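WARN  no MSA supplied for this record, continuing single-sequence
INFO  ligand: zinc ion
INFO  echoing inputs
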Amino acid sequence: MYYIIMDLEWNNSYVKSTQKFINEIIEIGAVKLNSKLETVDTFSELIKPVISKKLRSRIKNLTHITNDDIKGGKPFSAVMADFENWVGEDAVIMTWGDTDIRTLLSNYKMFLKKSSIGFIKKYVDLQKYCQCFIDMENVQQAGLSYAAQCLEIDIESFPHHRALDDSLLSAECLKKVFDNEKLSVHILNCDSDFYARLAFRPYVIKDKNDPLIDKSMFNCFCDICGGKAETLKNWKFTNQSFRGVFFCEHCNREFRVNLRIKKFYDRLDVKRNYSEIIRTPAEAPVEEDNQ
Ligand SMILES: [Zn+2]
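INFO  complex generated
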C-alpha cells in the first residue's frame, strides 16, 4: 500500500457561462510513500488553463509561477490521466485540509464531466490528522507551515509554495506523527457519503424556529453562578449570531450573550460568548423587548 500526498495550485477564474468563479487548477504535485514511509516517487506537472490564461497576482507572488509557465503546461485531462496511472490501484490519497480535494472535484465536474474522482478510493485529511498531535489552543485550523513548525520541521528547507514542495512538507508532517492505528481512524472510504460531505457547505442558522435547533439552546444561564437569568432583551439575529441581554438576580449583573449556531454536515456547532454590561447609575435600565 502507498500513501500519496497531493497538493494543487489554482487560479481563481470567472466562468462566463455559469457566471460563477472556479478555482482552475494550474499545477499538481505529489509524493508517493511506501508503507515504511520511504519516498518512492514524486509527480509534478503544470496545467494549461482554459478559462483564464492570466494568473492573479496573489498566486504569482505566492508560487512564482508565471503566465508563460502555464502556457507551456499540459491540458487538465492529459495530466489527470497521467496522474491516475501514477497513483495506481493501492493508494491512500492525502491532502492538507479538504480544500484541494473540493477544488479537484469541481475541476473534474467542469472539465471531465465526472461527479467523482475515480483514482481516490481512500482519503485522509492530513491537516485534521496532524492537528491531533499539535497543541491547538489558540488556532482553529493549523496552516501547513504553522503545523510543520510545531512539529519541529525546518521549513526553510522547503522554500517555495509550489505544489510539489508543499506535498513534500506535508509528507514530513505525516512522518513526524505517523501512527498506523491512529491514522486508520482517519482513512475515509470515498463512497457516496464522502461526496455528499464534500458538497456540503456549512452555514450559520438564522431562524430561531429552524427545526434543527433545540429550543433549550436559547435558555440563558448566568455564566458566573449558573443560575437561570432573566431576559432583558430577547434574542435577535444580527451579524451571524443571535444576541440577547440578560440579568442575573443572584449576581446582580447584566450581560450580553452572542449565540452562534453553525450547521456542519453531521453536527451543529454552538458557540456562546458572554460580555459584561457595565452601567453608570444615570443610565436607564434596558427596556424589555420581546418583539
Ligand atoms: Zn449569576
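The chain has nine helices and eleven strands.
INFO  checksum written, moving to next record
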